[in-house]
Amino acid sequence: MACSSSSNAKMSNPNVSTPAMAVTPDAVDQKTSPVVFEIYGKIWNVQARLGQGVSASVYRVNSGRASSAVKEFQVDAQGGDYGYLKESSVLEKIQGHKNIVTLYGMFTNHNPFGVATHCLLLELLDVSVSELLVRVSNQGHSMWLIQHCARDVLEALSFLHREGYVHADLKPRNILWSADDECFKLIDFGLSFKDGHQDVKYIQTDGYRAPEAELQNSLAKAGLESDSGCTTAVDLWSLGIVLLEMFSGIKLKETVKSQEWKDNSSAIVDHIFSSNALVYPAIPVFHLRDLIKSMLHNDPKLRSTAESALNNPFFSIPFAPHIEDLVLLPTPVLRLLNVIDDNHLYNEDDYEDIIEDMKEECQKYGTVVSLLIPKENPGKGQVFVEYANAGDSKEAQRLLTGRTFDGKFVVTTFYPLSAYKRGYLYQTVQ
């Protein structure tokens, strides 16, 4: 890719390819996993196993340029399909919200051994909050990312609770980023139930389990009945722990199981925030701490609701994403850094040649909708490439990262499509 009509600079591959922040799903075991699914008369190839639980496995599947997720349920011990019927029925009733995973359809898969399994065809999402926590271990996420995740999950819970449902298994692994919609979405409704009609004894995951759910589980194990079922308040407790982990960068499973936490969780939250006080601005820290503490009352009746939590002043503060956020969260817009020198921006012929060369190169990886190279700050000399979808931008990021241009290594990040469309280019990203 020529820098200009008079330049000999080319973009070349490094000796060793090192794509940044690549997610590596489980390899598909051909002996135990399907190779293809036939869905509505069309063959979908299994590309990777994204996760495996006690009752179901999730696969990334592809048919042509379309990619989706398939959740395949195992037949339970009694030969029934309770898990499949439970999750599909809940998902069908809560469709249409931007922060809840989209259900495309349901089908039965007949494998070569004559076993029929029930499956859900779902929207394919990207990185989970669990993976994000691993990548920034012990340092915590930016306020922009915490606010983005908190708002998206609260919007989903507010909708879910208005519809009369409790998610009952909120945790980092069940909050996933949608690269095309640029938001976080909730998945996995296998333990969900109608508020006031709890039909699942053991709910929530260890480390994110509300005190009343912990008590109920203990009674159930002892063969005793609880006086009352759990409510939507259990979801707010789980979210409070998730946000505390995102702020601290520390997994809190052992902390929330400790006697010190049971005796005075508020003091532990204060200690976590005081330990990180120098890293974050004081006012946002105060509001975030207040928001989290409102979700972590031992008495579920005192906990904030999802709707009231959205009114916390924390959500009125504008934040810009850090560069780590733009590397971690894919979008349809790719940003190339360390590519264009200032002297190429002010010669009109050179500039037009650069635009055309960049388009030609970037179109090798997907459909380019638009391309922008600002001549002035903010964004001076950076290349913004809008692809038709996030799949194309991720492929471009994978193949362009680490290549050299005019003797310089190309650096790539993603960029918020919403900001790009508004012409808002962040002046500085820490």
Automatic annotation (TrEMBL):
SMART domains: RRM, S_TKc
One Gene Ontology term, aspect cellular component: nucleus
Compartment(s): Nucleus
PANTHER family: SERINE/THREONINE-PROTEIN KINASE KIST, SERINE_THREONINE-PROTEIN KINASE KIST
Organismal lineage: Eukaryota, Metazoa, Chordata, Craniata, Vertebrata
Domain Protein kinase: 44-315
Positions contributing to ATP binding: 71
EC number: 2.7.11.1
Residues forming coiled coils: none
Record function comment: Upon serum stimulation, phosphorylates CDKN1B/p27Kip1, thus controlling CDKN1B subcellular location and cell cycle progression in G1 phase. May be involved in trafficking and/or processing of RNA.
Gene Ontology biological process: positive regulation of translational initiation; regulation of protein export from nucleus
GO molecular function list: ATP binding; protein serine/threonine kinase activity; ribonucleoprotein complex binding; RNA binding
Chain ranges of the RRM domain: 332-410
PROSITE patterns documented for this protein: PROTEIN_KINASE_ATP (PS00107), PROTEIN_KINASE_DOM (PS50011), RRM (PS50102)
EC top class named in words: transferase
Catalytic activity: L-threonyl-[protein] + ATP = O-phospho-L-threonyl-[protein] + ADP + H(+); L-seryl-[protein] + ATP = O-phospho-L-seryl-[protein] + ADP + H(+)
Keywords (A to Z) from UniProt: ATP-binding, Kinase, Nucleotide-binding, Nucleus, RNA-binding, Serine/threonine-protein kinase, Transferase
UniProt cross-references to Pfam families, sorted A to Z: Pkinase, RRM_1
Protein name, entry field: Serine/threonine-protein kinase Kist
